[in-house]
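Internal ticket #5521
Category: modeling
Description: The requester needs a full-assembly model to guide mutagenesis choices. All entity lines are attached below as received. Residue total reported by intake: 824.
Assigned to: D.W.
Attached entities:
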Amino acid sequence: MALLVGVAAASAKSVPGAPTIGTATDVGTGRAYNNGAATVTFTAPTNTGKMPITGYTVTSSPGGFTGTGASSPITVAGLQSNTAYTFTVTATNAIGTSAASAASNSITATTVPQAPSVSAADVGTSRPFNNGAATVTITGGATGGKSITSYSATSSPGSFSSSGSSPLTVTGLASSTSYTFSVTATNANGTSTATTSNSITATTVPQAPTIGTATAGNAQATVTFTTNATGGKTITTNTATSSPSSITGSSASSPITVTGLSNGTAYTFTVTSTNANGTSTASAASNSVTPVVPVTYWMQRYGAATLSGNYISVTADSSGNTYGVADGNLSGVSSQSDSPSFRYAYIGTQSTIRQGISSNATYTAIVSNNASSNSQGFVTVFNNSNGSVAWQRSITGTYTGAGATTRMNGVVIDASNNVYVRGVTRQSSSTASFYHWLAKYDSSGTLQWNSNLNVNTSNGGALLGTAVDSSGNVYLIATRTSPSTTNAIIKLNSSGAFQWANNYSNGSTAFPPRTLVCDSSGNVIFSAGVGLQINTYQLCLVKIDSSGTVTWSNATDVNGNQVLTPYSMTIDSSNNTYSAYVDQSSADNGYLKHNSSGTLLLQRYWSSGAALYAQNMTTDANALYAGLLSFGGSAGSNPYIFKVPIDGSKTGSYSFTGGFTVNYGAPSYATRSTGTVTAQGNGGSFSMSTYTVFTSASSSLTYTSYSTMFNVSAPTQVTL
Amino acid sequence: MTKQFQFYNPETGVYPRFPGDMMLIDSTWQIGDTPPAPWVEVHESNRPENNDENKVVIEVLPTLIDGQWVRTFEIHAIQSIPTSAVGLSPASFQPPSIQASDVV
């Protein structure tokens, strides 16, 4: 029985013995947050309990997460991230489950990170247009047991993304567009699930404005523009910047006025828009403009309405003041500013005839004659600044017998304040001894030289225009009628020594030079009237060099059939010439502007009920000033100063007391092509039902210079 | 002889204008450029000879010949009207002179 019991006992089935625990290892990689895993190895028990072991169970501690399997190793999942675990193993057979093994080594379960908590914000400041940015800040989320190596944020829409450490900056966002961001965290085990951020609207600096038009003013310019997209924030200001010099002006809206510019300098402008985020890129550059001194155009009666005047001359200083001088019972030197006040400084007595005038920037020189005697002339130089007399000289001839004569006919003052006086003096009792001469005074009134040019009044001779070049050479127009009609340009050097005299002719019967100017290169341009055909008179311009050789010539007519007489001339700093003409057929007068090559640039006229003759003209950088003398008309005969734009850009009517209106403008065929216009030519009169005016011609003229004309002898001195 | 330039506006009949006028219309315009539309350049033509003092040569609006606008002239007879009838006298148009004969 005992044996049976022993056999029975030896063959009894039981639960297995406990397995021998091996090693627990964290799985980590790819494990979702709080779903970690560990693998556990073990050794099967030698005591299977006489029954096949059907499986093993690994149980975590803590948590009691289990894993089962038929053999080692076994994985236990569901572990909490970043939590320490040990494991025991049991074996199970048909009888039951073994005792637990010893506890394994401890492991810490790791996983991917927890989905982060995020907050998104617009960056805005300084962001370029359509390149906005958002800051994505990760504010929470567990690591999953391993350090987070990076975060990633991706926009919606647009899929603009950024990765790295918190905070992230996502760029490239379109201005004024709403975005959310999908954010993940990554550690060595992998990437978390995504979190969607709050929505933000991306803002930037504004879009660059569209440039409009720049318009020049006085030391300023006005720039128009159109603003574009705001960048998501209100545009607070717009700024125009000059090139060169980067001078700026700002405005909340178009236009912008940029001040502080230099007159005479060409500028372009770009415009930027600014909002709270910053300033846009610049617009395209504007058109180029050149600020200029403001020009007011006016015509000023010189003296009382009933004043009858004779000669009138004007000059202008750099401040826009003009100075005029006229001959008349009440007039003298006068100044005129652009915000007009009109002042007088009387010259001499009412019996003094003011015969010739000239001005430069500093002085005005006047020659006058004693109305009660033929034997004395005066030259007076005034300070333009205040009208005071700088110096005055009296001139008389040495012949004091019956009919003694010394008369002044003209004066020129050069840039160095030297004064050149033209006059005529009777030298003996002979009625054929009226000789014309030129005298030069320095700036203090000291006589430098005087030259008798042997132009004798008895043969119809006269000295007309005078011009001085920058080297002090003097050019004169000399004419005579006997023994033959001659018209010449004479050159004297700065010492008064005779250089040459040339007669210029195109073969027509009349080619009298009228006036002349010197350019900045020592050339001379003179005007002459010429009859090309019957009833056709043209204004001719001839440019000669310092040796008298013709450079070019041209001719301009008015309507091809009119009586066009050249009158005064002036020249600007670019060597453009302005030649006043007298259209004796239409009572319209005006000027022609030619460039230094002789190309006609502009033709402008002035007309009124009276004939207005341009006695003298001058220019500054912006304006042409003409001293006009009216003959007849409702307001009587009066001298005027007329200021008009140098580029011919302004036209219009100027009205004066007594209903006297002057029209100034460009030639207008249309307004003059109807109606009857009466014209005068060659001693007759005619009228036409249609009429064209102010055309220019370029008739081919051949000028010939003669070196032997005009019997000019070596200059001799006259005694003054 | 300097080449001259003059321009005509066929749409308005305004004529003539010159390079400076074109520059006022378009500040970038230079001599030799095509004028700003609708302005056209008017080319020279032969002015009729006139040796009859009872006739005058009149320029009228340019005409388009072979695709080119050219200056156009007509010869008109002068109608004699007494000066007094039109309120003009030769003396009224004589410029004041500074010739010696006036002051001696």
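Resolution: model delivered.
Comment from assignee: Chain B touches chain A through 56 residues (CB under 8 Å).
Ticket closed.
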